[in-house]
Write a structure and sequence with these properties.
This protein has eight helices and seven strands. The protein is of the alpha+beta class and 205 residues long. Strands 1, 2, 3, 6 and 7 form a five-stranded antiparallel beta sheet that branches. Helix 6 crosses helix 8. The longest helix has 21 residues. About 8% of the residues have low confidence.
């Protein structure tokens, strides 16, 4: 009776340890080698085709600078220079937001339609492809598109219209005096570097 129990236990242990050996795995791989090779080649070809047909992306960049009263900066009053710089920095932060607003981008839509015949853009679609970065008093603006020239043209329209809208004004009753529409922004934005033809963006970016 005891020997039967021991024999049964040995059989259970053998069944538990029973599994695929390295030799068995090699045998399975060998038997399905053609299918595995076809599978790997198919994915390689698909990856190559996708990399060829994937729509390229191009990024154009431009820079603008916010000006401030330089006379105060060169005066003997350091507090005046500091105040002017702080004011310019505040204006810069305002411009970063201002550039992406419909009041500017609606003008951009009209501009690029008139100049280049781009009639499938809206303020919203342009805003989604834009990015703005503030570095001290310098505002860096980028625009991405599927065409390098389109990216350049639209970005240049953005910075041009941002300036024009910021500098917009009405005339007073005397017909001579200019009344700025946006007093805080009026004549404070200068183009530092206009957009050049967009450069291709790597797919991993």
């Amino acid at each position: 009776m005891e020997s039967e129990i021991q024999s049964s236990n040995v059989q259970v242990v053998e069944e538990q340890n029973d599994g695929l050996s390295f030799k068995d795995i090699l045998c399975i791989v060998r038997n399905h080698l053609i299918a595995i090779i076809v599978f790997v080649l198919a994915f390689t070809v698909l990856g190559f085709v996708y990399s060829r047909v994937e729509t390229p992306t191009y990024k154009a960049s431009a820079s603008m600078m916010v000006s401030y009263d330089g006379t105060a900066a060169t005066s003997s009053s350091s507090s005046s220079a500091t105040a002017n710089y702080q004011y310019a920095n505040y204006v810069s932060q305002t411009f970063v937001v201002f550039i992406t607003q419909d009041v500017v981008l609606d003008k951009v839509v009209e501009d690029i339609k008139t100049q280049y015949g781009y009639d499938n853009y809206s303020a919203s679609s342009i805003r989604k492809s834009m990015s703005t970065t503030l570095n001290s008093l310098i505002i860096d603006v980028t625009y991405t598109a599927s065409d390098a020239e389109v990216a350049q043209n639209i970005l240049n329209a953005v910075i041009t219209q941002a300036q024009e809208v910021a500098n917009s004004h009405t005339l007073s009753d005397d017909g001579v005096t200019k009344i700025p529409t946006y007093k805080l922004l009026y004549e404070n934005l200068n183009v530092l570097s206009p957009a050049k033809e967009g450069s291709k963006v790597r797919s991993e970016e």
